[in-house]
Known about the structure:
Helix 2 (25-45) runs antiparallel to helix 3. Helices cover 80% and strands 0% of the residues. The protein is built from 9 helices and no strands.
Amino acid sequence: MAIAFYILAVLAVLSAFNVIIMRSPVYCAVSLVCCFFCLGVIYVLLNNEFVAAIQILVYAGAIMVLFLFVIMLLNLRTGPGYALAPNVTKLLGIAVTVGILAQLAGVFTSPAVRLGPMGEYSAARVAEEGSIQIIGKLLFVDYVLPFEVISVLLMVSVMGAVLLAKKRPPADTEEKQ
Length: 177
């Protein structure tokens, strides 16, 4: 069991690394699907079948179809490329890294970490109440605002991709009008 876990963990890390280094957006998306499937199987090995099913259905299924749809909609192979200057890219990378590290520091210093490795939901409580009921209560009662904000953010990102991919009329037709 531990050997399978480590093999899947290495595969997940390698496929995530391929997402970063691949040039083709379609190959990046396929590598991301591989990473999502590896994570789903890791969840099964950890006896969390509900999260594994959600991982496979939502991320490897729906989100990746959405990514591939946006990639095809944008037709990334044609048109002028927009790139930031290398110095701006490095500064943005450093800013994002500092932001992620600050969030991680906030997570590890929060009171929830002090409650123990499972927080207020011990293994006995999860077995008693059921993981699906606990997840549903957390998503739709305790964390309903962040859940809705993320759904709106996903909708806005899809609308932005459609707006970017919208065909513009040629310049000579605008002059005739």
